[in-house]
Amino acid sequence: MVKPLSSPAFLFPGQGSQYPWMALDLFEAGGTEVKKLFTLASLVMGQDMKMLLEQADAQTLQRTDIAQVALTLANLAAAAFLREHGCVPQTVAGFSLGEYAALETAGVISSGDCFSLVKIRGKAMQDAVDSRESEDAPGMAAVIGLSPEKVEALVAEWTGAGLTELYCANFNSPRQTVIAGTAEALRKAAERFKEAGARRFIPLKVAGPFHSPLIAQAAELFGPALEAVHFNDPLIPLYSNVSGKAVSSGNEAKALALQHITSPVRWTVEEQAITTAGTIDGVLETGPGTVLRGLWKESGSPLPCYAAGTVADSAALPLFNT
Fold first, then answer.
1. Does any domain span residue 225?
2. Domain interval for residue 194
3. How does pLDDT run across 11-23, given as a tens digit for each residue?
4. Fewer CB within 10 Å: C terminus or N terminus of the chain?
């Protein structure tokens, strides 16, 4: 029998996990808190989010300026549904965009400010991507089969030797690192990584070179909106993509939120820090999909990770079966 969780961490997925009709089961089965989130997100977006999720196709939901609010709504709705059933997080973290749901859940920002920030952030990032649209626009690729430390060292070595505009963007797992770069830099890097022993080099179908200096324009556009929002000190442990460590204050959280756009996601470091803190007995992927479950398994953590993004997922959780 699976041991029930008593002190779970909520991990919120990032952009790319969204899909049509996500979170609508939570709306139908959830209580007042879930429905309030849909209402609030609709007010911020200026459109009915329930209707959007019912009608939008996958391509529409891929747009950064739509996906960021829609996915944040799905993440927060999943968290609210869990809380309505007595499941309260003891620690929170989010992958990339998912960090905003973690900020809200930790009490650092309000739900309204969370939706407002991700709306502005999504538009800023979409504008930065649109300004560079071309066949040679910057992009991202996954390097499979090399350690994060090896990939980071190779990028630093090649940059020092003149291969500029190539950056580590996401340290996903011990065997998968995502890099960002110009089209030319990625073409050159593909052969070099294979020569260095990478099993695969996979160009990703993403809107832009996120979590790298190549999207610095978005940080410049987002900065004033971020500065206007008050950030409280975290009420529960909150971990940062930028540092991989627990955030100590609201001021630190705000500073990291700006760096977050152009800094790599140090997810492997974050997973290790959450595991070794010794304050939780398992983690829940609180939002759409199962990407974080896979990455958690690859991390080697002895703590279990369960899907918790749908009503059916929640009903199957060990903490619901005590």
1. yes
2. 139-207
3. 999 999 999 999 9
4. N
